[in-house]
Design brief:
The structure is a single chain. This protein is mostly helical. The chain contains 9 helices and no strands. It has helices at residues 2-79, 85-95, 97-101, 114-120, 124-224, 231-236, 240-257, 288-296, 310-326. It is elongated. Residues 7-41 have a biased composition (Basic and acidic residues). Residues 1-41, 143-206 are annotated as: Disordered.
Length: 327
């Protein structure tokens, strides 16, 4: 334990000596640096003073030369004779010898300031501490400036981000609004189309039913006149235009009777132009009834009868042929 304590004490003493030597070395380095800085500063001040003195002397010489030339010109104007410059200079010296004889003022090197004298009295350690304090203050100022700059940048970034998010949100809402409007317009168009198709189909069914009704009425009228006309022949005596006109008239009457619920009438379908004639069955017996019917039936094409009623008319035609065969 004693050996260890002695070793520790020896190490401590060695460390203190080393620290003292290092401090002495640093103080010497700092003192040398200070002396060099002071010497450089004094030399700079001396050179500046010499330059100022030379400049002042040059200006004084220039002023003297200008005054001499002016004096020579003045004498020439008064007497009409030119005089040498040295005579003009002598005349100036006689007029104001004190001003011309005075040497130009030479600026002396500036005296050392109180701050320099105070720093010259400091040791190296004190100068290092002062420098460290100044560096610490400068670091704190730089840190505060960097923090303020960063906060300003973060604020600008936050504002830019908020503006971008607001613009993106507005763009998304506008896009969604346009999509909803387009979907609504498409749905309305589809509904309008379906409604129109439904109305046209209903209108066509009404026309077909009206053609059947008119054919029955026509057959009844022929029977009242004494002519028994089959239904399919009576249906050929009715035109599509007649059925359309009757349907339009019925709808107009219904609309007039119930004004609170008007029914829009779609555009009528173009009538079919007759292209061929339909004759009576070839196997039917020739009789006055058939001849009268043939004279009364107009030439109407097969296209006047709707395809939806073709099978019905074929059945009626077959039944009519059978009845005519029995006559």
């Amino acid at each position: 334990a004693e050996l260890a304590a002695a070793a520790e004490e020896k190490k401590r003493v060695a460390a203190e000596k080393k620290a003292a030597a290092e401090k002495k070395r640093q103080d010497k380095i700092e003192a040398d640096r200070k002396r060099k800085e002071d010497a450089i500063r004094a030399e700079e001040e001396r050179v500046a003073a010499e330059k100022a003195a030379i400049q002042a002397q040059r200006e004084a010489q220039n002023n003297l030369l200008a005054a001499t030339e002016a004096k020579a010109k003045e004498v020439e104007e008064k007497t009409g004779k030119k005089i040498p410059l040295y005579i003009a200079k002598q005349m100036l010296e006689q007029e104001s010898p004190a001003e011309l004889a005075a040497p130009p003022a030479v600026a002396a090197p500036p005296a050392a300031s109180a701050e320099l004298r105070e720093k010259a009295a400091m040791t190296g350690a004190e100068l290092n501490a002062l420098k460290m304090e100044e560096q610490k203050k400068a670091a704190e100022i730089a840190k505060a400036e960097a923090k303020a700059k960063k906060e300003a940048e973060n604020l600008s970034k936050a504002e830019a981000k908020a503006a971008k998010e607001a613009a993106d949100k507005a763009a998304r809402e506008e896009k969604q609004k346009k999509q909803e409007e387009a979907a609504r317009a498409k749905k309305e168009a589809e509904e309008a189309k379906a409604k129109k198709e439904k109305e046209e189909a209903e209108y066509e069914r009404e026309v077909q039913r009206k053609m059947v009704d008119l054919a029955e009425v026509k057959a009844q009228e022929m029977r009242e006149k004494g002519t028994n006309v089959p239904f399919f022949i009576a249906s050929q005596m009715v035109t599509r235009e007649d059925a359309i006109a009757a349907v339009d008239a019925d709808r107009a009457a219904a609309a007039a009777a119930a004004p609170p619920t008007p029914v829009a009438t779609p555009a009528p379908v173009a009538p079919v132009t007759p292209t061929a004639t339909v004759a009576a069955p070839a196997d039917a017996p020739a009789s006055a009834t058939v001849e009268a019917v043939e004279e009364a039936v107009p030439e109407v094409g097969d296209d006047s009868v709707s395809d939806s009623f073709a099978s019905k008319f074929e059945a009626l035609a077959k039944a009519a042929k059978e009845r005519l065969s029995e006559v």
